[in-house]
Design goal:
The chain is mainly α. Helices cover 70% and strands 2% of the residues. The protein is built from eight helices and two strands; from the N terminus they run H-H-H-E-H-H-H-E-H-H. A two-stranded parallel sheet has the order 1-2. This is Putative integral membrane protein.
Amino acid sequence: MTDDRSAAADDSEVRIGPDGSEGSTDEMERLLAEFDALAETVDSPDERERVRSARRAAVAAANETAVFGRIIHGYDRGDLAEAFLGSVLFGVPMFVEGGTNEVGHFLAAHPVSLVGTVIAAIGLVVGILYVADIQDVRVHEPLFGVLPRRLVGVLGVAFLTAAVVMTAWGRVDWATPVLAFADVVVAFVPMSVGGALGDILPGS
């Protein structure tokens, strides 16, 4: 049973074809099924282990192709770290650029634009993760049965990073919370994009 579970885990990251089709996945599944059938026909433990080693090597070879095309599912601390790094890379220019505060002042005075900017940022992240087909991102165990963990993670990391860094660097003053929130939102927009790209481009 342990070997079966490890074999199943080995093919959890089988890639799809570079053109976005499922063909390569189907071929790999057929190959893995043949390996499993072969393992059942051999009697020697050594021969059975050789078959399993060949099976693992086939999966490893499939997963070592291009970054693009992997089926992405699950969400863990590694994904959060990738989203954080992507957010910081896109956020540093926003932290030091005075235009961030200028746009923030405008948004603070125009609530409709402020709300629209937040919605647009969320829409961009949804588009990158689930619509643009950059990677085949699967929703895994959504929060409350509705909210994708990856979406919440990317947005949450980007916003919290923007708020913490801009506060620490004196770019916002929470004595005026609406203005401070607006300033953070301006930085949050590109940071959320960076977080989404940083999360999925490694293909993890």
